[in-house]
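Example 9 (inverse folding). The structure is encoded as follows.
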């Protein structure tokens, strides 16, 4: 039997909904607890430079509450390195970040920033934190990830999710080759971005795949699997007058 692929739930979008109204709900920390109860193997959050969804207080509360594994996604900056060293998540995933993007677009250019990334990865590793690089499924990025001392790579599945037909098959083949190459380099293999219950199967079946990070589609599905119950609950509250 093949090993179980771990599911890490990204709770950023719960914070997005909360921040849209400036309320204290829905709370991403409460969401993390529910996800863990339901079998999530880890909780992922991305503290963006502009704090557009998850904010510093969320990260501190997640650290205190998460009992599985906390995957802290952040840009490769000194500010985030220091925050991570104080926080001690189980995993730090380094991602590229641009203020104007809607979500993380493209992978981190590890090969182009080896000199800057190596000491950052070294500082996190020395603190006992596993470091993962969010990269495109490209051999040069995998080899560079290995050279800077990363423990793992998270392969960007955004392209695969946007494509269809033969183009999607070709991207899946590229992802498969990247899994083999990363494993051959001694890196652990994760994947994420754009995954849904309709497209996750072939990604979960890739060789050496250990972990998937899923956020947007899962929170979107939760709206519909929970909406009927939410209407019933409000109805009951109204009727209890
Ligand atoms: N992995 C990384 C590194 C990400 O930046 C994101 C998006 O924040 C995800 C996974 C989750 O992507 P999605 O929200 O599309 O499931």
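The amino acid assigned to each position is listed next.
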């Amino acid at each position: 039997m093949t090993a179980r692929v771990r599911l890490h739930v990204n709770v950023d979008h719960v914070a997005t909904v909360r921040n849209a109204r400036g309320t204290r709900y829905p709370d991403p920390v409460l969401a993390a607890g529910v996800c863990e109860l339901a079998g999530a193997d880890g909780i992922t959050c991305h503290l963006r430079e502009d704090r557009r969804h998850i904010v510093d207080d969320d990260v501190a509360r997640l650290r205190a509450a998460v009992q599985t594994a906390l995957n802290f996604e952040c840009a490769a900056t000194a500010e985030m390195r220091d925050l991570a060293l104080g926080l001690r998540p189980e995993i730090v995933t380094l991602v590229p970040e641009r203020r104007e993007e809607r979500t993380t677009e493209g992978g981190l250019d590890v090969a182009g920033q080896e000199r800057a990334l190596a000491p950052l990865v070294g500082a996190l590793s020395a603190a006992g934190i596993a470091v993962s690089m969010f990269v495109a499924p490209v051999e040069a990025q995998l080899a560079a990830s290995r050279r800077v001392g990363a423990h793992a790579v998270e392969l960007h599945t955004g392209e695969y999710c946007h494509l269809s037909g033969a183009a999607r098959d070709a991207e899946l083949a590229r992802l498969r080759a990247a899994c083999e190459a990363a494993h051959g380099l001694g890196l652990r293999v994760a994947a994420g971005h754009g995954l849904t219950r309709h497209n996750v199967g072939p990604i979960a079946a890739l060789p050496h795949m250990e972990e998937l990070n899923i956020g947007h589609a899962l929170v979107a599905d939760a709206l519909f699997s929970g909406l009927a119950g939410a209407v019933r609950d409000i109805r009951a509250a109204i009727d209890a007058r």
